[in-house]
Amino acid sequence: MSGIISERGTPVIAIIKRNKEMIWDLAFNDFSTKYAGSAFGIFWAFVQPVITILMYWCVFQFGLKSTPPVENVSYIFWFATGMVPWFFFSDGLNAVTNCLIEYGYLVKKVVFDIELLPVIKILSALFIHLVFIGLLFLIALINREPMSVYVIQVLYYLVCAILLLYALGVMTSAIILFFRDLGQIVNIVLQIGLWATPIIWPYTIIPPKYQWVVKLNPVFYITEGYRDSFISHQWFFEQPLLTAYFWVFTLGMLWIGSTVFKKMRPHFADVL
Q1: 141 and 236 in contact (C-beta within 8 Å)?
Q2: Which residue in 209, 219, 15, 40 sits closest to 112, CA to CA?
Q3: pLDDT of residue 97
Q4: Cα(95)–Cα(166) distance, rounded to whole angstroms?
Q5: How far apart are the C-alpha atoms of 123 and 128, rounded to whole Å?
Q6: Which of 46, 116, 160, 222 is 20 to 30 A from 133, comparing alpha carbons?
């Protein structure tokens, strides 16, 4: 995040530190106002993801009689450990992509650092994601899945997901102001990404010589990382090449996104 410089020449990481209380307040307000008009409030934030997980579980385990990809691990736990980080990534990318449009009145204010808007949207999505991480522990408890010290690296993969979201979202949030169809394109890419990423199916079904193609998807690193933390019990540094690739890709996208955002920023108010 330090790669982006605000219009006043201040690194974004410094702006975040200076305005951390305001960011928390705006993120919580963003989260709560989404469901302010409904009777059940924030309850709806969790209904669709839970129903999605249960639906796929019933279809694959009971309908198609799929066997769990990992021996002695329940199918719903294996599936949920991949689906939960995907929910965070897809919901977060959609939210960040549209953040400048949604908060157009703040973009037009000279005194507001609009570089904070992607951060606010990611933080808002994070509130829901933390609850679903708790749900993973609950599923593990119900199914008597063994937990180990490896689970602490979920925090590392969470940081990876946040930085990847920020890197991609900074770019898409700037471009969509000039190309409104980008929002529909992002939705289509995410729909394809759900099936292209080994979430519903294990990547081991692909012949080893072609598995590198799947691993080019940076979200693969995150979803498999959650499974490594909860199921496979493997440290991230035990996969140095995959880890190096993810960080090269993410930092590269952060640089590209920062450059695009910075060049387009002076024209944001004109197109809103």
Answers
A1: no
A2: 15
A3: 95
A4: 11
A5: 9
A6: 116
